[in-house]
Amino acid sequence: MGRPVLEHPVRSVEVANSSNGIQRDLAAISSAAELREYLLSHYLLLYIVDGERLTLLSIRHHRQLSFDLQAMWLAA
């Protein structure tokens, strides 16, 4: 379920740098780890799928604009 986050088009240098950092962090977790998002009517779920393991990172209302991915990696 959901779609891969890193397949979104890159339209700025900032997004490209962030994407590269996320890819490095995912590779450190596992070679099979994939960052995905699932959209509900008013919520966005951000999670990592690694084989049969699913790790929920965040549930955000559509009015919340960002995720603090670095803090999520440190907390894991």
Description:
With 76 residues, the protein is an alpha+beta fold. The protein has one domain (3-75). It is 32% helix and 33% strand. A 4-stranded antiparallel β-sheet has the order 1-2-3-4, with no helix packed on it. A hairpin with a 3-residue loop joins strand 2 (34-39) and strand 3. The mean pLDDT is 81.
Give the integer mean of the pLDDT values.
Answer: 81
> How are the strands of the largest sheet arranged?
1-2-3-4
- What distance separates the N and C termini? 22 Å
| DSSP helix fraction | 25-40%
Q: What string, H for helix and E for strand, traces the elements in order?
A: EHEEEH
Structural class: alpha+beta
Beta content comes to 25-35%
Number of strands: 4
Shape: globular
Total number of helices: 2
Q: Count structural domains.
A: 1
- Low-confidence spans: none
Largest sheet: 4 strands, antiparallel
Q: Multimeric state of these chains?
A: single chain
CA-atom Rg in angstroms: 12 Å
Topology:
Layout: E1 3-4, H1 13-29, E2 34-39, E3 43-50, E4 53-61, H2 69-75
Antiparallel strand pairs: 1-2, 2-3, 3-4
Give structural attributes.
four-stranded antiparallel β-sheet; 4 strands; single chain; 76 residues; 2 helices; alpha+beta; globular
Summarize, please.
With 76 residues, the chain is an alpha+beta fold. 32% of the residues lie in helices and 33% in strands.
